[in-house]
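User: Hi! I'm working on a homework problem where we have to compare a predicted structure to a textbook description. Could you give me the structure for the chain below?
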Amino acid sequence: MKDPSGLSIIIVSVDGGIARTLRMALRGVNVRSITLASSQQQALEAFATVDPHALVIYVDGPENDAGLEMMRYIRRSPQSPNPRIPVIAVSPRRELSTINAVINAGGHEYVLFPASGDTLVKKIMAAWQTTRPWIEQSDYVGPCRRRREDKAYSGPERRAERKAKAPTAAE
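Assistant: Happy to help. Predicted structure tokens:
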């Protein structure tokens, strides 16, 4: 699907202003089916009325955040309507702790807020068309976090060699 007008999106944010801003950005690039939810209950009701292609969740931070709780519910709960739905996290925070929290909760993509509609649609399409394997472990459920498929990639070995050759503080 190259035309975003066929996408169906659920936006989850406890802040109505942010949800409306994200909806306006997506409508600006021709996404027409957008449902807003301000709570987990509203998001579950939205799943019952529409068949979404992706979930856009606003994440404010790693500590006790409703967005991250929603991501964990979607990925891990037996009552989840679609545990494999592409999840795009939108956040104004660029700290590594927030990004890692999103990745560990099972997010497909991470977008800094504010973002253009083009950026959001590109991330939604990338998540929706992903070919990464699905992982279901006791501590993680979501798309494989490794992005490289190249078997000849020698990054870990190369880093180990550099570390072994590096001078120590005693030298």
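For your comparison, note the following. Residues 16-27 form the longest helix (12 residues). The chain has one domain: 4-165. Good luck with the assignment!
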